[in-house]
Amino acid sequence: MAKKGRVFSGARPTGRQHLGNYLGAIQNYVALQDDYDCVYCIVDVHALTTVETTQDLRQNTFEMTLDWLAAGIRPEETILFVQSHVPQVMELHAYLSMVTQFGKLTDLPTFKEKVRQQPDNVNYGLLGYPVLMAAGIVLYKSDIVPVGIDQAPHLEFTRELVRSFNHRYNTKVLIEPQAKHTEILKVLGLDGKEKMGKSLNNHIEIASTPEETTKRVREMVTDPARQRKTDAGNPDICNVFTMHKIFSAQEEVDMINVECRRAGIGCVDCKLRYAANLNKNLAPFRAKRAELAANPNYIQDILHDGGNRARAIAEQTMIEVREAIQLP
Ligand code: ADP
After folding, report:
1. Do the domain assignments include residue 72?
2. Structural domain boundaries enclosing 275
3. How many domains does the chain have?
4. pLDDT tens digits, one per residue of 77-136
5. For residue 60, how far is its CA from the centre of ligand 1 (angstroms)?
6. Within a domain: residue 271?
7. How far is the CA of 24 from the centre of ligand 1 (A)?
């Protein structure tokens, strides 16, 4: 069946993925493959704007690739590759930067936030991040980019940049990508307050063993007002209940919803049930991952092949771009 267009998305190589990545991004990536030609990029160059050391970059890329493949990214149809393997993106970045107004970049909320986060390392790459991101998207003539709320200004910036470029060089070679607003589920960390993420160490890695998973689940914060097992709880404000709704059967969810409110089930029991269901749900993924991990050369081959396919598209776009600019 003909696909509806090309989707592009990039993610920094953050290593082993956590439940937030899995539910908030990876599952969407997997689903999009049914309807679109997908180009998924591990943006190692972007990562250089914030990392203090690059010693984990290769391992993190490997681990993330394993997670994505085991979760259902299909490398025969989807182009899965590493950003730096396609140097054309740096070239397009340079050309796009000439039609980018400095003030637009300094105004972006994401830039301001980074300045706050790393005041001692406000590097040029950080400022140019959205330009490089735009280059990556348009290089592959992407029609659709799945975006969450935080990335929406970047996509709008990309669209404006495309218009500026096409106008300046009186061309139509670059395509304005459309945002696909996916309902992003915000997965909370073990603390039940902050967004799950590695930096806060409030996460559960999907590749963990069942034992590690259960240990982490036991650390989860439930309804803070519920001090003792004999107190009634409120599932509506309990993160464990939220996760039950994702991973447990409806009957069990209904049972907990009733029993928690009348202290018929304790938090420990509730968490152990969640851990068991989560482990059961992730078992096929973990088995597949172990199988893939046993063959690191195969992973490298996939990224290599993805790089080749990405470069072919990228070079074609660059031929048109150089022509449009009338480079000598
Ligand atoms: P990046 O810089 O590439 O966004 P992250 O690791 O922060 O790196 O996120 C990768 C993807 O996972 C993004 O699409 C992000 O929205 C999603 N994600 C990360 N943490 C969560 C979370 N706690 N809940 C939902 N989605 C999340």
Report:
1. yes
2. 208-290
3. 2
4. 999 999 999 999 999 999 999 999 999 999 999 899 999 999 999 999 999 999 999 999
5. 15
6. yes
7. 7
Question: Structure tokens of 267?
Answer: 């938090």
Contact 105, 133 (CB under 8 A): no
Confidence of residue 1 (pLDDT cuts 50, 70, 90): low
What integer is the mean pLDDT of 276-286? 98
CATH of the domain at 10: 3.40.50.620
Which residues are CB-neighbours of 177 under 8 A, at least 6 positions away? 8, 137, 138, 142, 143, 144, 145, 155, 158, 159, 162
Answer yes or no: do 281 and 316 share one domain: no
Instruction: Verify that 217 and 103 share a domain, yes or no.
Output: no
Classify residue 203: in a domain, yes or no: no
- Asked if 25 and 174 sit in the same domain, the reply is yes
pTM of this prediction?
A: 0.95
For 164-181, give one letter per residue: b (16+ CB within 10 A) or e.
Answer: bbbeebeeebbbbbebbe
- For the segment 196-250, what is each residue's pLDDT rounded down to a tens digit? 999 999 999 999 999 999 999 999 999 988 888 888 999 999 999 999 999 999 9
The atom of ligand 1 lying closest to the CA of 148 is 16
Give the residue whose CA is nearest to atom 18 of ligand 1. Answer: 21
Q: Could you tell me the CA-to-CA distances from 293 to 72, 287, 296, 322 in Å, in that order?
A: 15, 10, 6, 41
| Atom 2 of ligand 1: nearest residue by CA position | 12
Which atom of ligand 1 is the closest one to the Cα of 24?
26
Q: Looking at ligand 1, which atom is closest to the CA of residue 203?
A: 23
Question: Residue 107: its pLDDT value, please?
Answer: 94
Rounded Cα gap, residues 207 and 289, in angstroms: 8
Please, what is the angle between helix 267-293 and helix 296-325, to 10°?
Answer: 80
22 alpha carbon – ligand 1 mean position (Å): 9
